[in-house]
Specification:
This protein is mostly beta strands. It is about 0% helix and about 70% strand.
């Protein structure tokens, strides 16, 4: 939603049309291209997206892009919001991998990132190391830090 746009409380009826085309999973680049047009609260929405995309860089390394662009026309205002998401996974082995997720929203001007390492050090027992941050891209210079977390989680399967 666009900051500053208010939607009145109440019931809403939606009618919309969605058309999709899927690129085959057997291909090096796969995904779902979608177009949506219809009602959105007491206005209209036109949306285009490419989702569930996957680009196989190597057999153990992939990139998963997602792009959604929504054009919304409401009595309170008109806005366009784009959300870009990129995820990558690299598998060192079936029991160790690293992944990264980056997301940007044009309406909030926030760039979020999440980096995760997973290691299954024995069957059913895992260790995760995760770094997450969120940055405001409207600030001059390097984007202003809004939130940051570093987490380590270790699980151990106990058999009785």
């Amino acid at each position: 939603m666009n900051p500053g746009t208010t939607i009145p409380v109440g019931g809403y009826t939606y009618t919309d049309m969605v058309a999709s085309y899927g690129f085959g999973q057997q291909r090096r680049l796969s995904g779902l291209l979608t177009y949506q047009a219809g009602q959105f609260y007491n206005g209209t929405i036109n949306a285009v997206s490419f989702s569930t995309g996957r680009f196989a860089i190597r057999s153990n390394w992939s990139l998963e892009p997602t792009l959604t662009v929504n054009h919304v026309n409401l009595p309170a205002g008109t806005f366009t919001n784009a959300v870009l998401v990129a995820r990558t996974d690299y598998g060192f082995s079936p029991r160790r991998f690293i992944s990264a997720l980056m997301q940007y929203s044009s309406s909030t001007h926030v760039l979020s990132s999440n980096f995760r390492f997973r290691w299954e050090y024995r069957p059913g027992s895992e260790m995760f190391v995760v770094y997450t941050d969120e940055r405001d891209t409207l600030k001059p210079g390097y984007p202003d830090l809004r939130n940051r977390a570093f987490t380590v989680k270790v699980t151990r399967l106990l058999r009785f």
